[in-house]
Design goal:
Layout (H helix, E strand, L loop, with lengths): L16 E5 L2 H8 L4 E8 L2 E8 L1 E3 L2 E6 L17 E10 L6 E12 L3 H10 L10 E17 L11
Antiparallel strand pairs: 1-8, 2-3, 2-6, 4-5, 5-8, 6-7, 7-8
């Protein structure tokens, strides 16, 4: 480890890398490949973050919630589009520092259709020993993401002989 507490690969160097912006479709596809992310919401007028497991259904991000939990406060009245939240997930290798990160910003609303709620209960198992009775749907308005990629090495010079 170096003086900043960062573990470096053997040999002390890391490959040169660059950041590439992701399009919406690629970002949502990557988000669907992982099951854990973080939801950012407002609690008592301050930002709050919770790790949650999720699934992607079309473009919607679905998480399950339990009664009385902090996320249950995101239930919006029927006459508003929802509560603004952000959702972030990533996969970044700590050794190579390569990977991706996606952030979705949109409106969260409770899932009210009983068939959808039952289907999500079958597909999305909670990670905690607590009954999850409801689901929350995040409809993305803004989808941003980036991929940290290795910068290709320049071609070796041709040897003329």
């Amino acid at each position: 480890m170096d003086q900043e507490g960062i573990r470096r690969p053997a040999g002390g160097t890391t490959a040169a890398r660059h950041m590439r912006e992701l399009g919406r479709a690629e970002a949502l596809r990557l988000l669907a490949t992982v099951s854990l992310g973080r939801i950012v919401f407002t609690q008592h007028a301050l930002p709050a973050v919770r790790p949650v497991n999720h699934l992607v259904d079309g473009e919607d991000i679905i998480i399950r919630i339990h009664e009385g939990g902090a996320l249950a406060s995101l239930a919006a009245p029927a006459d508003v589009p929802g509560v603004v939240v952000a959702y972030e997930a990533d996969v970044i290798d700590p050794d190579t520092r390569l990977g991706w990160s996606v952030v979705v910003t949109g409106y969260a609303r409770p899932v009210v259709d009983a068939e959808d709620t039952d289907r999500y209960a079958d597909l999305l198992r909670p990670w905690v020993e607590q009954p999850m009775t409801n689901a929350l749907r995040i409809r993305p308005d803004l989808v941003t993401g980036f991929r940290l990629e290795a910068t290709p090495s320049p071609p070796a010079p041709a040897i003329h002989g």
